[in-house]
């Protein structure tokens, strides 16, 4: 078995947030080269268009959606749009928020972690 077959992502989809440049675009190239269809998201339409064009020039099936992931209301809308593009995603990759744009705090608690019980 070849490495290409062993690590093939053919038939899979990858959603990459912050994928228009830098590490996100490199991740898109790697996953796309392994056969995954790519859906990029970022805030800047012109950079997304360049990234999609670059990926398609490499023979990668790539699409993009404009979204600002630092806004919680945008995340749900993005998920809905992504599901319209593809019936289901199978791989997610996120890149960290740039300096000066803190991530939103997690608000979901785990059951049993925040409750106190006496015995």
Termini gap: 57 Å
Return the structural class: alpha/beta
Task: Specify the biggest β-sheet.
Answer: 4 strands, parallel
The radius of gyration over CA amounts to 17 Å
Q: Number of helical runs?
A: 4
Helix content: 25-40%
pLDDT under 50 segments (min length 5)? 105-119
The overall pLDDT, averaged over residues, is: 79
The coarse overall form would be globular
% residues in beta strands: 15-25%
Provide the spatial order of strands within the biggest beta sheet: 3-2-1-4
Helix and strand string, N-terminal first?
HEHEHEHE
Number of strands: 4
Keywords:
single chain; 119 residues; alpha/beta; 4 helices; globular; disordered C terminus
């Amino acid at each position: 078995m070849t490495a290409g077959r062993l690590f093939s992502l053919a038939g899979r989809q990858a959603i990459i947030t912050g994928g228009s440049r830098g590490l996100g675009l490199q991740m898109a190239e790697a996953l796309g080269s392994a056969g995954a269809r790519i859906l990029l998201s970022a805030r800047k339409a012109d950079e997304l268009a360049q990234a999609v064009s670059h990926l398609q020039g490499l023979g990668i099936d790539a699409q993009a959606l404009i979204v600002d992931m630092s806004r919680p209301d945008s995340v749900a809308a993005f998920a809905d749009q992504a599901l319209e593009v593809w019936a289901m995603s199978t791989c997610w990759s996120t890149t960290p928020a740039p300096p000066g744009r803190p991530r939103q705090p997690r608000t979901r608690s785990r059951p049993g972690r925040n409750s106190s019980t006496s015995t």
